[in-house]
């Protein structure tokens, strides 16, 4: 780490550490106070909301008790049930009675009186047939309570009353919770209570509520952002919820069961892996639990922002002063070091001409002088080593070319000699002209690579000579991609491969010899292939073909030249099947060597 950075870091630590400790202490102290106040206030709100709802529900509960001794209702259901023809008139009378008792309550969604023959009440808000009602959970709970009120948690209207045609409909009474009571109509006459005769039907009073009874009250009374309210039945069914998707469900929530067992109060709970404050109260009327969940972060957000702003403002001011002091102190020390690092970086990139201007005679100035001296010596050693290696490489390549040319010249002159012996003067003349062009091409040993089209032209002259020598026992086909003709290739790199096919591959053939020369682009490389249909090479000789002391001088030289020019990943590969032929593959990079 640089000295300037060390100074800055030390100042930052000295400034921020006390600020962080002070800020953290203030934050947690304020947080605990705020959480306690919020928890107490929200718990009080939940309890008051529960009391308000209980008072409203108690009025409805008392009205349902008064309905039990309503004489007009007693007259309707005392004795035999009304005849089928009297049901509509009876419904009108019953609806008037129900409205007299419950029409003033804005909390009730609908009120029905259910018998096995008819559902009495407003038909706009009760559409189910009575025969399904007696198979429902509403009737089961009413019958179990035997005249007492039974509170039924929120349910799906279409499922409770077996109305599949309403399952996908958009109805306002999709989710309801209800209170049911099995009625035993009676009437007070004088000082005596007259009860319905034996065998009289006992209708069931059903009072329905929407979850808005709780939702509207809690939503408007909890001002904390992110707070979530819910009302749950004793069995865990969600009566009302801030998120309507949860209404009517019975989620598996261990924290909810724990809260219900405690009755009323506040505690810390874990909901879906998040810490929350739960403020809760249990209704004395329904036995249901109202819960408000508060994320602690919502209560402490403002405190955290205030303290953070204070710490950042003070810290920024002190940090600016520390930066100024650090800059002034380190400038005179770090400037020479920065120059030295920049020079080292340039040297690392290969620039050995990098020099540092020495302005002082102190210890750092002495280091810079030594660096300049060392850099000069390193450059001198690298130059000497590079030149030596380059000369060694050029000498080896030149020696290989010189070794190749006499070998080719010996074979060619031998062929012309035999043609002269046989008296083929015109062919000897043509061959000598071709040979002169070839010698002109090969005499410049300083040029190790040539364009491919020039090397192919030279190879075609060579093929003419060899074809005449062997009385046209073979032919050579070229299949080279035209765009490769301008590529730079090693001089005479294909000739030894063709010569090997002619001399060795066709030695036992009188006619029908075929050599095919392919050239293809393979990514950034060029792949050449010289393929013949000659006698092939035995496995033992194939292994020896590219060995150091191989008898195949031309092939071995070409392979060594390619590796010297391009690296060991390039070179020659040979495949051969006896009596079928040989394929020699050669790969070089595309472009100038």
From TrEMBL:
Transmembrane intervals: 6-29, 277-295, 307-329
Any single Gene Ontology cellular-component annotation: plasma membrane
Cited Gene3D superfamilies: 6.10.340.10, Histidine kinase-like ATPase, C-terminal domain (3.30.565.10), PAS domain (3.30.450.20)
Keyword flag Thylakoid: no
InterPro entries membership: Bact_2-comp_sensor_kinase, HAMP_dom, HATPase_C_sf, HATPase_dom, Sig_transdc_His_kin_internal
A Pfam family of this chain: His_kinase
UniProt cross-references to CDD domains, sorted A to Z: HAMP, PDC2_MCP_like
Alphabetical UniProt keywords: ATP-binding, Cell membrane, Kinase, Membrane, Nucleotide-binding, Phosphoprotein, Transferase, Transmembrane, Transmembrane helix, Two-component regulatory system
Keyword Isomerase attached: no
Protein name (Swiss-Prot/TrEMBL): Two-component system sensor histidine kinase YesM
Source organism of the structure: Fontibacillus phaseoli
